[in-house]
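Work Package 3 (structural annotation) set out to generate three-dimensional models for the target panel prioritized at the project kickoff. During this period the team completed the workflow that converts sequence records into discrete structure tokens, so that structures can be stored uniformly alongside our sequence database. As a representative example, we reproduce one entry of 428 residues exactly as it appears in the project archive.
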Amino acid sequence: MNNSLHYSTAEEALNVIRSGDRVFIQGNAATPTYLLNKLAERAAQLHDVELVMLGVFGEVELAKPEYSKSFRINSLFVSDAIRKAVNDNRADYVPIFLSEIPELFKRQIMPLDVAIVHVSVPDKHGFCSLGVAVDVARAAVDSAKIVIAQVNPLMPRTHGDGMMHVSVFDAMVHIHDALPEVNYSSKVKPEDIKIGQYIAEMIEDGSTLQMGIGCIPDSVLTSLGNHRDLGVHTEMFSDGIIPLIESGVITNKFKTKHPGKVVAGFCLGSRALYDYVDDNPLFAFLDIDYVNEVAVIKQNPKVVAINSAIEIDFTGQVCSDSIGMRQFSGVGGQMDFMRGASLSIGGKPILALPSRTNKGIPRIVPYLNQGAGVVTTRAQVHYVVTEYGVAYLFGKNLRQRAKALTAISHPDDRENLERLSFERFGGL
């Protein structure tokens, strides 16, 4: 192990990677893009290197066709950067609950030869932080034979499970690159705002929130200004929680687990968000096998889990990760939190989706598209929200579910849904 603060060049650090190795790549806003690009320069020297990724961000050079003989991406979640490679069969996808990914590494089901991570600069005690993406990276670092760190003064120093001493790293490469940023505010549509208002009305004071990033989560957060003592225990968060913290809406006062703190696995947003979490003890970035553990989630009061879907059939089956046979994203933590919220006292698991896509394609359908993956089973669905209202499915039979979902579908889709419901289940 390297106990000094000696920095290597990228070429020196990456020289330890051999053909046939399995290499973990940290993801989201912590994607080590500089080292990935440098690794691409070694393509001619390598073959059959497996790159294990989770939601990598930005342009990934190694996902291009010309690198397919040297590197094969094996993705645990399909982000935009590698979607084409997966659907062109130049990369692979592993469907798995986010909470269970650390077990792949810890139990050597997917043994790691190398882990490449992106960390903050060492403090005076020699500790770095995994920054804005602790999630599964902590387990990868603990399990890999060799760990390479991309050290960046622009990576926030976050509190929680991401702290690690420089002695953990076999090589460190110093860079000074901006983190990727995301902003959905300009993309919010009227239907997103309406959905956000419906959901805000369902959230009681003292609730614990889980929500992701995007137009609907942002719309929910902007509608919560009059709420009190909300808490946050979530897989990830973005800029939308900052105004609610500063106005005193989010206090985390009534949480059972980590009261007074925002608990998350990672964050993704603007530079202002990254600066806000930097060395801020209000935030606890923890290992995802704890954050997304159902037994942990359910202990918090009134957990409201807000998740999205690509389509839902009128029996309640939810497709969230594919468009027919085309892989779009991944299983992620949806089921972790849907289950956790349903078991929480006063909890509300919510699926939110516009009634139609931007191209006018219905999202509430009689049958899922051929090849569509069911992420959340119909037995687990409670609330479904569109811009046309809220359907409560828990405890309802198939005929009742079809009626409830038809009522919140797009008005132009209802006649067809009613006809097909009648053919399948009899009268509504």
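The mean pLDDT is 95.
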